Amino acid sequence: MKMVNIDKKGEVFRIIKSILKKSIINIKFIINSFLKKHRCTLCSSSRKLSLVFKGWPRYYLKCNGCNLIFVGNLPTNRSYRLLIQKEQSLSGYEARHKINWQDWQNWKIETYRSLGFFTFEETLRKTEKKLLEIGCTEGKQLEIFKRRGWDTLGIEPNKYFAHKCKILGLEVINGYFEDLMFPTQSFGLVITTHTLEHLKDPCIAVKKIFQVLKDNGRVILEVPLTIDYNHPEHLFFFSIKSLTKLLEDNYFHIIKTFRYQDKIFNHDNYAIIAEKSLESIDRIKR
Prior knowledge:
This protein is α/β, with parallel strands linked by helices. It folds into two domains: 2-74, no CATH class; 79-285, Vaccinia Virus protein VP39 (Rossmann fold, 3-Layer(aba) Sandwich), CATH 3.40.50.150. It contains ten helices and eleven strands. The strands form two sheets. The protein has a seven-stranded mixed β-sheet with strand order 6-5-4-7-8-11-10, with helices on both faces. Strands 1-2-3-9 form a four-stranded antiparallel β-sheet, with helices on one face. Helix 6 links the parallel strand 4 and strand 5. 28% of the residues are buried.
């Protein structure tokens, strides 16, 4: 009998907790709507927004102008960075991610080939092969480029993963791209795969990527197209339309795109290679 009572109390507690969570989210949504704080990060529209998901601890809005889906109640920097560290904990991350690294690297090489990257690589002198990867995790992608003769630098906020990079002999900064300063025109290539959707302001990040790229340098961006609200560390969900707009609005010329189904999560992914063109730089000067 006592066990039954404990079970009933536990169930009541879970129901009350669920109701409180929903109430908090509803209150946040109403307050932010009343204060007109909802505005699309990408196109700044506040009139074309619709609520697409209310969960815990986030609710998501969709801009029907540019198709960007984004968190309507952005967390503070501190709380979000704590969440990132938790989500990328050793046990959870390695259980879900790339078990067979050789297969994973071969698969990534096929992605670069599909983007026509290797044709571009052949035109570069050794001194032009300087690469920055934003969100490099264990460094397995950097390892590919280092073997191909690139001077590589990774940025990784997770201390454990940054340490794994160093074990591989890779140069890595344990920090956040948003917090770091680099000289202009430092890199011939910037890579960010499945990272842009985690950043609090993708527009600022892409502007910064433009600044650190050499003239005619290139950026490879990859994002998931599959929308999965079970990952609270995803602050944005890009569509083909919204990712194209993000790049073109920031003076990048899109060279080639590649859409594919990944072999680990069966998610729909979208990769773009784009150029910081001299034509774009001339437009800025005018």
